[in-house]
Design a protein that fits this description.
This protein is mainly alpha-helical and 104 residues long. It has five helices and two strands. The protein has a two-stranded antiparallel ribbon. Helix 2 packs across helix 3. The radius of gyration is 21 Å and the shape is elongated.
Length: 104
């Protein structure tokens, strides 16, 4: 069955609006809000972990996030605090390396 004229028109309007919104956001200096928040992709890149892990840790409350409509946003400072809190000390790294080398 062919799509109706109305559904085709609706899809074209959605695409046009999406493109205009992206262009407007890019003109403002990025895809995030003007408050300096990072979107999921930017947070993923900053932390070096996948977007799915970002979503999971956000849902679990491990990484603080802000919901803005359907968008999930992150404060750069909160991401930095998460990294600092989860950073292993040199002693922890040495202990893990020693445990990995020891026979079981």
């Amino acid at each position: 069955m062919k799509p109706s004229f109305d559904s085709c028109l609706e899809e074209l309007v959605r695409r046009a609006v999406r493109e205009e919104v992206r262009a407007a956001l890019d003109a403002q200096g990025g895809t995030s809000s003007s408050a300096g928040l990072l979107n999921v992709e930017e947070a993923s890149n900053r932390l070096g972990i996948s977007k799915s892990v970002i979503y999971k840790k956000s849902n679990e409350g491990i990484i603080p996030s802000v919901k803005q409509g359907a968008r999930l946003l992150f404060e750069p400072e909160a991401l930095d605090a998460y990294v600092a809190a989860n950073r292993r000390s040199q002693q922890q790294i040495n202990d893990l390396a020693a445990a990995a080398r020891s026979p079981r």
